[in-house]
Write a structure and sequence with these properties.
This protein is α+β, with helices and mostly antiparallel strands and 119 residues long. Helices cover 38% and strands 25% of the residues. A hairpin with a 6-residue loop joins strand 3 and strand 4. It comes from Niastella yeongjuensis.
Length: 119
């Protein structure tokens, strides 16, 4: 996965907005106004932060070397994924999907209903 395929994948999800609230070097994807993925544009290798179920966060870090505690994020809920080729794109997409789904589930019921109509 490269930055362009990451971008395309995130934007293919319903109601996603691409923003730069932290400056031009940090790409941020939101749904319902809440962040589900952040990506540094000034690092040598592609890496991004995704939200994760606290029950899985430690398990993923222990199982995969490319999964680290969320850089500049709440370590209980966020992981940093280093795209180093050690896991396949489908697993990377699964982690992105999980993050998106966690954020959607946290939205008010009315916002979730509006999202269903956009699928």
């Amino acid at each position: 996965m490269d930055i362009e395929s990451l971008r395309e994948y995130c934007l293919s999800k319903p109601a996603v907005e691409e923003t730069f609230p932290f400056g031009p070097e940090t790409l941020v994807y939101k749904v319902g106004g809440k962040i589900f993925l952040l990506c540094s544009l000034d690092s040598d290798s592609l890496q991004f932060n995704v939200k994760c179920d606290p029950e899985k966060v430690i398990e993923l870090r222990e199982r995969y070397d490319c999964v680290q505690p969320g850089y500049h994020m709440n370590k209980k809920h966020w992981n940093t994924i280093v795209v180093d080729g050690s896991v396949n794109n489908s697993l990377l997409k699964e982690w992105i999907d999980d993050s998106y789904d966690l954020i959607v589930a946290s939205l008010p019921a009315k916002a979730r209903e509006q999202l269903k109509g956009k699928k």
